[in-house]
Amino acid sequence: MSENLVHCIRTDGFEMEYAQFGNGAKPLVVIPGLAIKSVMKSAASLQVQYKMFAEDYTLYFFDRRKDVEPGYSLAEMARDQVLAMQALGLKDVALYGMSQGGMVAQHIAATHPEMVRKLVLGCSTSKPEPQQLEVIGNWARLARAHDRETLIDNFIRDCFSTKFAERYRRALLMMYRDVTPEDMDRFAIFARECDNVDTGDMLASIKCPVLVLAASDDRVVLPIASDKIVEKLKAANVPCEFAMFEGYGHAAFDELKEYKERILEFLQK
Question: What's this model's pTM, rounded to 2 decimal places?
Answer without folding.
Answer: 0.96
